[in-house]
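Dear U.,

For the methods section draft, I wanted the exact inputs and outputs in one place so we can describe them consistently. I've listed the two proteins in the order they'll appear in the manuscript figures. Please don't edit the token lines directly; just add comments below if something needs changing.

First protein:
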Amino acid sequence: MKDFEQWIPVLRQIAMQAGYLVCDIRKGKLQVGTKSDGSCVTNADLESDQLIRRHLQAAFPSIPIVSEESEVPQVDQTKPVFVVDPLDGTRDYVNGMAGFSINIGIVIDGFPVAGVIYVPLHERLYEATGNHFQAYDTNNGLMTKIACHDPERPARLTVVGSPFHRDILSSMEYNDMPVRYVSHGSALKFGMIAQGEAHMYVRPGTTMVWDTAAGQVMIEARGGEVIDCQTMSRLRYDLRQDCLANASFVAKGAKFTCEELQPSPFVFMTKVGQQV
């Protein structure tokens, strides 16, 4: 894992450059289109993808890149692969909101081993390798470390996720504690859990490997888990072109168990998974 720690400063700078780029584009000539699957895409997605790929290829020419906005190559999954979302949370981005991010992860043998998430308008950068996690405040381009905290028993459990599920998830209880539900876009949710600002992320429906790989590293580096709701085991990735979608999952901090959340998030998945 030591080698990947040495890669992190490079990934950090690339993610931040991409973040500056997409912010500048939104202030200027933003162009919005629609993909064949009906999802939103902008010139910022594409230009960020080009920037990230160019810098990754210059720094790590032998490492393949699986990106949301480029053709997926055939890869040897036993070796490192970059997994990139050049603009996660495009809908928030287009709507003038702040919850978008740049995600760069490294996956080997189906599991993420290192990653960086940059959330430019929240002025937050998260990075992790192995059991090391660090959050930064990036105000004015400075990198100020942010201390993480591990609440032993908060007054209420903070669950992050989609606004579509606010009513149901807000009615849950955790060991008789009320649940506060916070809606956020993009991989910011993973960083919040790793930093200790939130406790659980319940995600029914489909996400893609580039949405979650970097974030999963953050959670696991802090002793938490990202659980595949089909296999009930650690979320694993298959980087073949037709296998990039994730099952429903639950991401949680180290001090919280899904069994104590009522109703169970896994039962919840069966009720609403088809709605997403």
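Second protein (the one for the lower panel):
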Amino acid sequence: MRQLWRSGFGRDLALVIVITIVVGSLIAGGLSVAVDRYFTSSVNHLVGEYGEYDLIVHAHEETHEAFFETLSSMIDKHIPGARLKRGPTVAGKANFLLAVDDQHKTRRVFESLGTWMSDLPGYAGLTFITEPSVVMRNVHPGMQETFDRELTDMEGVRFVFRHGTSLVAVVDTPERAEEIYKAAQELAARYSILEVRFPFEHQTVDFDRAAMDVEKALQGMWGRDAVRDVSVMDQDDEMDSFVVALHEMRRFLLGYATQAEVRLTAADAVRPNDLLELRQTPSGATSVVMRVTDVTADRARGYIESGDATALLTTGAGAYLPGDNNGRSIGWADLTNERLQLVEAIDTSLELLDQLQALADDAQGAVANADTVLTTFEAALVQLDEVQEQVRQINEELTTKSNIDPGEILVSVLLSGVMKRLQQQETRPLELENVDVPGMRAALQQMSDRLEAMAALDVASIRREITRVRENLPQLSDEEIADSLHLIDRYLEGQVVPGDRLQYVVDERVDADQSAALIRSVLKRSDITLFESPTALVNPDARATLFGMLAQVRRTIAGIMAVVLVLLALIADQATVLSAVQALRQMKGCSRRRFGAEDVYAALVGALLLAGIYLGSGAAIPGMSVWRMLPVGAVLGLAVGRLSRRISPVDDDEIAAAEALGLNAAQLMREVVVPSGRPGLLWLLNRPQQVFR
């Protein structure tokens, strides 16, 4: 290899390497720029030019027509003058571009857009692309007010609005965007979140007290204004709702489990969370275990944790301490199961529903009979009044008559007796003439109407729904309920998630490493972990962020193209040279070294080509600096060098004949090896120097 380089062919190789780097850089950079321009043009076509639209509204594809109509109505109502345009449909989401007119670009409008659109059919969220703007993402809840106020006070900021956990600062002019962006970065860098995280399965005695003690200790070390506790502020509404739901689920499961109440015979025999064995006789087999949840002076209440307690619901059972084989009961347990009671109540309701129709028909007939009796009774009252009046008139005629016979006297006496009996109103059990017959008939009619309404009920549907409720009741055993309760309790105690955590906003004066020892001493724990994280991430507006991603894609494409071009250059040019060197070594009888001069040359050329093209094209693959690309290029060169005899074989006879003619190494390469090799830069540059064609 040294002989080849000294013969003058080294200049040819150096020239090829330089030209390869230049041409490769132009090709890789040009291709990546072309791709970047294509993507940029596509983005502008999809979301408009810079500052043209302010947000993208997303909707489900299947309801996008109805959504578009209702969205247009909402815009006319709340932000008249805004422009709406249909965008592309991507991944099942229809997108609409919305441009808000300048007079409605306010904090109130931008923060209310989500609320106004939330009830629209098919609404699936929105993305703000208003420009120029600066976005602070993932802002910690404890710093939202501070950052909001600081951003609003910056010169050049038109207004600031909140979007989820982000703060968006709308800038007056594009020229001020870079200035505001740097100021926002400096603002976010002044603060950080110091998080104290406890390990799994810990039990914090007093979480609030621990948070306050750590805050006071840190303030004593770094200053009162350097540390602020924001642990509670990190509990968002969704987590609060989830915890409330877990509490409600726990309450439901407790009510659904078999309950046991023990009448204690000895005070202080049990405590909450203790286990008791329930059995009917002291020597009976233990199959039911109760967990105590509440203890009073003479009562212990809890739920069945394991075993089938169905047989004990009616008889009760003695309560025994676990492992007590002496048969000494600590009380008698009465068991209830609301789950079974609910099932029995549903079954009874179904039986009553089956009888409801017949009952309604029978009651309807009884009401009809009562109405008939009432009609007869009313007629009898009328006739009774008429008879009484007739008797009175006859009696008056007999008493006023001057000459009466003995028979008429007897009739008069009898009629007088009847009149006395009829006039004894206060001694009758019921004042028949004062009976409210119309009122009684109205009450009967009302009862009849209600019975008709009852008969008109769709009993079959009601029965079907009640049956469905019965079938859909959770089919949980007491053991499954107990397991679920334990899981919920562990979660609520913080043993499912990675422990409780304390969070503090600290300024740049606070050193986390120095604070760690202080916090461990205050909490008297050595197993806590400290993390320091930013309070927010600052990004330019959405378009700038997207274009930044596209620029990264461009640089990545340039890096990939650099690797491909280097591999092609090694195969087209260097493989021929290395193949000839190996052929000459074999012809001279030299043994193959494990790592010879040609291997060193191949590795150096590969590293030099890849580093040069990588830098020249502006490539930047994430995680791959130019120094990391050097070994990649060396590996490529070494691999091509080792396989050069297969990739670009040379004719050993031609080389032997050229040496017999007295050609030196440079002439051999220029006249024999390169012309018969693969077309490449070396082949093209060698054409003017070739004598024999």
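Candidate sentences for the figure legend, describing the second protein: The chain has a mean pLDDT of 76. DSSP finds 21 helices and 18 strands in the chain.

Thanks,
Y.
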